[in-house]
Amino acid sequence: MSPVDTARSTAAAVRAGERSARSVVEAHLGAIGERDGELHAFNLVTADAALAHADEIDAQVAAGHDPGPLAGVPIAVKDNLCTAGVPTTCSSKILDGWRPPYDATVVQRLRAAGAVSVGKTNLDEFAMGSSTENSAFGPTRNPHDTSRVPGGSSGGSAAAVAAGFAPLALGSDTGGSIRQPAAFCGIVGAKPTYGAVSRYGLVAFASSLDQIGPFATDVADAALLLEVISGHDPLDSTSIPKPPLSLSSTLQQGVEGLRVGVVKELLDAEGIHPDVASRTRAALEALEGAGAKIEEVSVPAVIYGLSAYYLIAPAEASSNLARYDGVRYGLRVDAPTTGEMYDRTRTAGFGAEVERRIMLGTYALSAGYYDAYYGKAQKVRTLIIRDFEAAYERCDVLLSPTAPTTAFELGAKADPLAMYLNDVCTIPSNLAGHPAISVPFGSGDDGLPVGVQIMAPAMGEATMFRVAAALEGARA
Ligand code: GLN
């Protein structure tokens, strides 16, 4: 893996005129050219646009203007974020040929901060999956071991950062899709509070759970990127009417006196490997060594999180994906009647996992079953929120493994249920709308990275990032 400069040091050098944005972008395009054939982190590399943008930034610096806090920093953008005039595929055949007429709010904010997009990254089709194997364009491989998956669904973004293709990337997280690939690839990934980052221009999977968030090689870079993309956006009705998050200034305040709870039910959850559990305990001890007060806490309802999620997320997806019918977006397979055209288009356009979710969700929402499935799942969601509330009366942040294991082999989880079990630790924060971050903390028995998850109550990002920075600093 090529070592990368941090986004902070790159931006500082570009802003000071010590390094040209063009040279930075060229170096990263070179790394992509060398290794992306093997990894397939990108669906599309926008080299010409990136170089042209870098030149604009250099011209701004030469003219005495400040291009912004991410001046000249290359960034990889998950391919479910709309980019004006640039194909946005969601790694699905159904969006074949579609070019959005507008940029997602986060993409606009990146540009305003001087970041340079180098391309669109691979994902599980419509962000449904935990390995990036569900992409219609073939899987992404883990840069640490190419026989392994990078995690998912934002596997392309995580692999891009871990491989040194870009110091920063954006992902989306509906049930763990930023945190789990960050853990598998040995980098930092955060899911913000629901509403902290605008979803405008994020292709919807499960709208009550989806959030966009940062990937970076360290906690401070992730904080900086989240500051840039957060803050109120009138174009997203669920956006919290607050200014951007302020994280960097308190990052180094340490954890003295903070109360850190380890969630018993997640540490003991089905499938958590002993080496991952022991790294999580080591993280707890490291935080204790840094001055935090640690305790074990119970959040009983989290064990039902997986079941609730796999009703709520497919239910919302079945509704969100109804719009891909061959009329307005992308693929269309013609047929004698409109009904058959819908049928053929959707059959040709969607992969197996997306079809499965649409069927599950349609069933869960159908008359006669609604209360038994969707209604019950919503009640579980409320229980989880209540249990978290009780835990946060005693603790400032909560800790758990990010994923049950280190990165698994491609093809190892052919059974969809086995794949779903990967999300046991990440899903509760999505159901509650709370922020959570994965920080690398050593490696498993197989030598692959392990991630530890830090969770916080809604809008508790500043404390969460402080703990993350302390944990990063305590790493052996
Ligand atoms: N792995 C989960 C799923 O398949 C989460 C995906 C995500 O966060 N986008 O639904």
Strand content: 5-15%
Distinct small-molecule ligands in the complex: glutamine
CATH topology of one domain: Amidase signature (AS) enzymes
Report low-confidence residues grouped into runs of 5 or more: none
Instruction: Quickly count the helices.
Output: 16
Sheet with the most strands, sense and barrel status: 11 strands, mixed
Number of strands: 11
CATH class of one domain: Alpha Beta
Mean pLDDT: 97
Tell me the helix content.
25-40%
Which CATH architecture of one domain?
Answer: Alpha-Beta Complex
Describe the structure.
The longest helix has 24 residues, at 371-394. With 476 residues, the protein is of the alpha/beta class. The mean pLDDT is 97. It is globular and about 65 Å long. It has a domain at 7-248: Amidase signature (AS) domain (Amidase signature (AS) enzymes, Alpha-Beta Complex). Strands 1-3-2-4-6-5-10-11-9-7-8 form an 11-stranded mixed β-sheet, sandwiched between helices. It has 16 helices and 11 strands. Strand 2, helix 4 and strand 3 form a beta-alpha-beta unit. Helix 2 (21-39) packs antiparallel against helix 3 and helix 10 (305-320) packs across helix 13. Residues 127-130, 153, 173-177, 205, 313, 423 line the site of glutamine.
